[in-house]
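Replying to the earlier thread about multi-chain prediction with a worked example.

Input:
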Amino acid sequence: MTDLTKLTIADARDALRKGDVTSAELTQACLTAIDAADALNAFVHKTPEVAKSQAEAADARLKAGDTPDLCGIPLGIKDLFCTKGVPSQAASGILAGFKPEYESTVTSQLFDAGAVMLGKLNMDEFAMGSSNETSVYGDAVNPWKVDDRKLTPGGSSGGSAAAVAADLCLGATGTDTGGSIRQPAAFTGITGIKPTYGRVSRWGVVAFASSLDQAGPMTKTVRDSAIMLRAMSGFDPKDSTSANIPVPDFEAALTGDIRGKVIGIPKEYRMDGMPAEIAKLWEDGTAMLRDAGADIRDISLPHTKYALPAYYVIAPAEASSNLARYDGVRFGHRAKLDKGDGITEMYEKTRAEGFGAEVQRRVMVGTYVLSAGFYDAYYNRARKVRALIKRDFDEVFAAGVDAILTPATPSAAFGLGEMADADPIKMYLNDVFTVTVNLAGLPGIAVPTGTDASGLPLGLQLIGRPWEEGDLLNVAYSLERAAGFVAKPTHWW
Amino acid sequence: MLDLEYAAPAPKVIAGAKHDWELVIGLEVHAQVATKAKLFSGASTLFGAEPNSNVAFVDAGMPGMLPVINEACVAQAVRTGLGLKAEINLFSAFDRKNYFYPDLPQGYQISQLYHPIVGEGEVLVELGDGTARLVRIERIHLEQDAGKSIHDMDPTMSFVDLNRTGVALMEIVSRPDIRGPEEAAAFVAKLRQIMRYLGTCDGNMQNGNLRADVNVSICRPGDYEKYQATQDFSHLGTRCEIKNMNSMRFIQAAIEVEARRQIAIIEDGGAVVQETRLYDPDKNETRSMRSKEEAHDYRYFPDPDLLPLEIEQAWVDDIAANLPELPDAKKARFIASFGLSDYDASVLTADVANAAYFEDVAKGGGDGKLAANWVINELFGRLKKDGDKGITESPIPAARLAQIVALIKAETISGKIAKDVFDIAYTQDRDPEEIVKTDGLEQVTDTGAIEAAVDEIIAANPAQVEKAKANPKLAGWFVGQVMKSTGGKANPAAVNALVAAKLGL
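Result:
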C-alpha cells in the first residue's frame, strides 16, 4: 500500500481492526511523508522513536482485540500541548528547551486510546496569530499553492492544518481561542471543530486566554472529527472549567438526516465588502442544507459587530496575566545579564528576548486594558458585550434554531508575508466570523465546501447549541456530503 | 449563652507639642488556614520541609497547569466566619492580583477582591481591666500565600523557596475600630484565640502563620466620634499601612512610633502621605517601603481558570451546627456554672486545651473553684518552672488532678498534704488516690486521736498554756505542734476547735 497516509481515521481504524494494515506500517508511512515535507515546516519536533514504540504497543493491543477507535492512528500534536519529556514550547523562544514532566489531559486520553504521536506541530507563538507567521520556528506553509507564492495555512493551528491537508498525519490536535482551529481548517480544505467551552480539558495546554481556549480535532473528514473529538473530550477534575457532562458517541450521531432541522442565517455576518465568492459559497451552502431538508431561517445576532473589539480586549487581558509566569526564573529562556543587573532587568531582558512582537503587543494591550483607570472602560465593557453576544445566541436557539451557518473566513488563504506591513487590525479581521463562538462558549465547526476562483479551498462554519456537538457534526456531515469537496493540494514540497 | 457586659475602653491619647491626638487603627490579619494541602494544589503545607519539596506543578507556575479549589480551605474560612459571627457569602469568586516577584511563580496571586467568602462580622476584644472593644470585621477572603525569597545565602544570587507558595491564607480585615496599641495586640490575640478554638489557624506567629498589616492614622479628639456617626472617612487622618508584623510586641511598638511620627509631621505643618511602611524593631522606627509612584497597579480581574465559588446554605448550616464552643461562651459558662471569677475564667479559657483540662478537673473533682485554684496556681506554676511546658505535656493528666481536688473536697486530705500528693504525682507518675492510701496520708478526723495529741502537747508545755490563756493568738502554736505530731494528717479545723476548747479560750 503506497498511499496509507491518505487514509481517513475511520478507514484506517477499520483497516487496523481487520488486520489489513498495522499501526507500524501506517506510522512509518507518515514518518516518511513528514521527512519529505520539511518545506511545509509543519512538524517542529519530530518524535519517531515515541511514534514507533506507541505503534508497536497499539499493534499488540489490536492483536489482543482491544481496539479503541484511535488505537494505532498516527496523529500530530500542536506544540501548545504539554507532552511529557518532549519539547513543548508553544512555538515561543521563551520556552526554549522546555520539556514538561507531565502529559496534558488531552494527549493522555489520546495515548490511552492507543493513538500514536508523530511529533509536535507548528503554530503561532502562544497561539497568537492567524497566519502561523509569529512562530519562533518560522512560518508553516500551506500545502495548497496556485502560483509562485507560498501561502499561509492560517493560524494559530497552522502546522496542524498543513500536516493534515498534506497527509503527513491522519489527524491533529488544534486549539481555538478565536478561530485558531476553524480558520486554518478552512484555509487548507480540512475539517476542524472547536467544541463547547468545558467539553475538553485545558489541563496541560499552555494557556493563551483561559476563558476562550478550547482544544479540538483537525481532520480530513467530519466523521474523523467526530471520532477524535470523542477521545479528546470528558470531564477532568484537574480543570475547574471542565464540565461534568457525559460524552456521547458523536460518530453515532452522523446519520446525514437533517430534515426539519432549523438552520439560521445571521444577517450581521453579511459584512460590508464581503467578496462575491464568499457570499456565493455561503449561498450555495445554504441551498445544500435546504435541499437536504433543513428549514432555513434568517436570524439576527445584533451584537456581532462588537465581538471582534471585545475579543481583542478580553483575550489580551487574560493573556497578559497568563504569560506573566514566563519570567526566566524557573524554566525556559533567561537572558544573559550584565553586571549590576537586578531582578527587574532580568524580567525585562528575558521577556524582550523571549517573546515575539505579536505576543509583546498583546501582553501590552492586555496590561493596558486591565490597568487602573481603564479597567471599566475596556475590560468590564468587553465583558458586558460578551454577555450580550451570548444572549443573542441564547435567544436564537431558544427560538428553535438548531445550527447557524456562516462563512468561516473572509477570504481564501493569503500569501505568507503579505500582511507583514499591514495594520495588525487587518490580521485580526480574519477572526471576524469565528470569535463570537469563543465569546459565547459554543461549538463551531469549519467544513470545506468549495474553492475560490484560483482553486484555493474555502470553508463554511456551522455553530451549534452548547453541548450538542453530535447534532452539529451531523449537520456538518450533511453539508460535507452535499458539497462533495474532494480536492487535494498538488504535491509540490 | 450568657452575654458579658463591658464598658468600652478609653482611646489612647498621645500629647503632641501643640495638642492631644487620638489613634485610629484597622488591621488586616493574614492567617494561614490549617489544612493539610494548599489552596489550589495537593501539595503539603507542612512547615520546615526541605526547600522546594512541597511544590506541585501548579504552585511552580508550570505552563498549562490549573488551580483546583481545596474544599477543606473553604470550610475553614466558613468556620472562621461563623466564629466571628459574620455573614457567609454563598457566592464568592476568585480574582487575580498581578505583580512580578520571583517568589510568585504565576505572576499573580489568586485572591478574592470583588466577592469575598465572608462578609461583615464582629469580635469582642477584652482588655483585662473590665473593658472591652467591639471591633467590626469588614470581610474575610481566601488567597494564596507567596513563596520565600532568600537574599542572604550568596553575595550575588538570590534563592527562592516555593514551599509556602499557594498555601491558603485568610485575610481578616477589620474596620478602623481599634483605638490604641494595646487594643490592636489584644485584637490579634483574640482572633488567634478564636481561630485556635475553631482549629482553623494554629496562630503561630513565629513561623509566620499569623501576621498583620496595621493601618494607623491619627485624629483630634472628637473627630473619631464624627466618623462613627457618619462612617465618613474624611473625619479621619491619612493612614499608613505597616506591613507584615509578626509579633504582638512589635505591633504595639510600631503603632506607637508610627503615630508619633505622624503627629510630628502634622504639628510641623506637613501632611502624612498614604503609603506602605515597614517597622524596624532594632531602630524602633517605621520606614517607607514604596511611595505612591512606585505603588503596584495590581490589575485585578476575575480568574478565568476558576468558576465562581458557590456553596450551599445546608453545608454552611452543617458547619455551624458542629462549631465548637467559642471563648466568650466558654468563659461565660465557666463563670456561671463553676462560680469562677472573671479573671480566673479568662485565664482558663485563653487556650482551648487549658480550658478542656480545667473542665475535666472541675467535673472529676466536683468543685470548680478548687479546680481553678489548683490548675492556675499549682499546675500552671509548676509547668512554667518545668521548662515552660504546655498543658498537653503535663505529667499529671486531668483525671489525676481531679482526684486530688476530690480528695480535698471530701476532706480525705488537707490542702497542705494535697501539695505533697501533687508533687509525688507530678514526679512519680502515680495515682493520687493510690499515693494517699499507700503512704497513709489520710487526714485524721477521729476526734479521739486528735484529742489525745492535744492533751499530750498541753500537758508537756504548761508555760505555753499560761501564755496562750493570756493571749489567745498564741493558740496557733498548739495547733502547729499537733499537726506536727500527727504528720500533718490531722484535720486542721478539728485541731483548731479542740485546742480552743482545751485551753478554755
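The longest helix of chain A spans residues 376-398.

Feel free to reuse this layout for your own posts.
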